[in-house]
Amino acid sequence: MYLRFQRRIPLIPGLIYLNLAKTGISVSVGHPGFWLTFGRGGVRVTAGLPGSGISVSEQIPYKGRDSSKKT
């Protein structure tokens, strides 16, 4: 069994959110349908069709950092 913790706090509702999770803190900027999330592993770009549950997401590691390695 896997336990997951995540909390999303609106800083500017509908535009900027502070994300708190068991694995760390990140900031999301965007609106429904398109989000940029800045976290310790890099930038995640997410695009989707709001309300459909369909989305695509791509992780872009910060320059010089391999997100597959644990430090």
Verbal overview:
This protein is mostly beta strands and 71 residues long. The chain has a domain at 1-33. Helices cover 0% and strands 61% of the residues. It is globular. The two termini are 26 Å apart. The model has no long low-confidence stretch (mean pLDDT 88).
Short description:
The chain has no helices and six strands.
Give the SSE map:
Layout: E1 6-12, E2 16-21, E3 24-31, E4 34-39, E5 42-49, E6 54-61
Antiparallel strand pairs: 1-2, 2-3, 3-4, 4-5, 5-6
**Rg over CA atoms:** 13 Å
Sequence of secondary-structure elements:
EEEEEE
Count of strand segments: 6
Approximate strand percentage = over 45%
Overall helicity:
under 10%
Mean pLDDT: 88
Which consecutive residue ranges, at least 5 long each, have pLDDT under 50? none
Short descriptors:
single chain; 71 residues; 0% helix; 61% strand; globular
